[in-house]
Write a structure and sequence with these properties.
93 residues
Length: 93
């Protein structure tokens, strides 16, 4: 079955790339900072062990979600580049 879609031109590709949302910097250092602050609060103030553990678990889930989102974006960018026929560092995906 033939596709009726025309291939994406270089101009269109450049336009898509410019309009794409930017991939944020790695957030792990920021998450580490929040975890350290939670530890300090836990030691100095009344923060129950349960509250402390819940906050730590939530932050670790956030870290995992951020990593998965970043990996997904890199993966799909690589697929798009492969389809387009570009030469990219993710071309081996």
């Amino acid at each position: 079955m033939k596709s009726n879609k025309r291939p994406v031109t270089d101009k269109q590709w450049k336009n898509y790339k410019q309009r794409a949302p930017k991939i944020p910097d790695y957030t792990c250092p920021q998450i580490d900072d929040v975890l350290e602050r939670i530890e300090k609060i836990h030691k100095k103030q009344k923060l129950s062990e349960f509250q402390h553990d819940q906050l730590m678990k939530r932050m670790e889930r956030l870290r995992k979600a951020n990593d998965l989102l970043r990996e997904s974006g890199i993966y799909w960018y690589g697929i798009a580049k492969k389809i387009k026929g570009g030469n990219d560092k993710y071309n081996d995906l």
